[in-house]
Amino acid sequence: MSVTNRAFVAAGLLASIVAAVPAQAASLSGSYTADDYATVYLSTDLLADASEIISDKTTLWGASESFSGVALAAGQDYYLLIHARNVFSGPAMFIADFSISGEGFRFANGQQTLSTGTAYWTVNESGFDAPGATPVSLGTNAGLQIWGQRPGISADAEAIWAYYADWSAGYNGPAYFVAHIVAVPEPETWAMFGAGLALLATRRRAAKR
């Protein structure tokens, strides 16, 4: 068998093995709270509608909310959108942890977990599709002076808002938070890509002989 034929056979065997391994379905989970209300959307754009709501905190300040098992379609980028509302003057904040299970997706930080903070989130007071700014941090969950540590959320998650909304500066109104979920090639896709490159290199070497 020639070198080129052996490369074709090897690539075919690799493709068969990869095809026999099913891709692990990816899903999104999260725990969050806000002072006061918050609605969480998973959208493919910055124009969220009611059909894209995955969780809704409809009670005033209190316990954390959580959700899990929200499916992510392979190859599709998403936006995690949070419409938080402060309905009284005084303190306002949003704090959360989110995680992705399965393969094929990462947050903008390159990881499968993302907590609230001043990096990898944008916020404004006009709408999801308005130009975003860096959120303002009111402290980490380990030592929140106004709210105390929120259960079910990691200690290093930060309480964030569109401005420093403490007792003296907070006012009634919304904050629109955005985080990006990026579709990335799954391991089997990289394996096929590598096999293709190896095959191409082998054919070029054979052609030079």
Short description:
The protein is of the alpha+beta class and 209 residues long. It has helices spanning 3-20, 187-208; strands at residues 26-35, 37-43, 53-57, 65-72, 78-86, 93-101, 105-107, 113-115, 122-124, 136-140, 158-161, 173-183.
Describe the protein's topology.
Elements: H1 3-20, E1 26-35, E2 37-43, E3 53-57, E4 65-72, E5 78-86, E6 93-101, E7 105-107, E8 113-115, E9 122-124, E10 136-140, E11 158-161, E12 173-183, H2 187-208
Antiparallel strand pairs: 1-4, 1-6, 2-3, 2-5, 5-12, 6-8, 7-12, 9-12, 10-11
State the oligomer.
single chain
Helix content: 10-25%
Summarize the main sheet. 6 strands, antiparallel
- Tell me the structural class: alpha+beta
Anisotropy-based shape: globular
Strand content: 35-45%
**Number of distinct beta strands:** 12
Order of helices and strands: HEEEEEEEEEEEEH
Mean pLDDT: 85
Give me the Rg, rounded.
23 Å
Please give the alpha-carbon distance between the first and last residues.
Answer: 16 Å
* Stretches with pLDDT under 50, minimum 5 residues: 3-22, 188-200
Counting DSSP H or I runs of 4 or more residues, the number of helices is 2
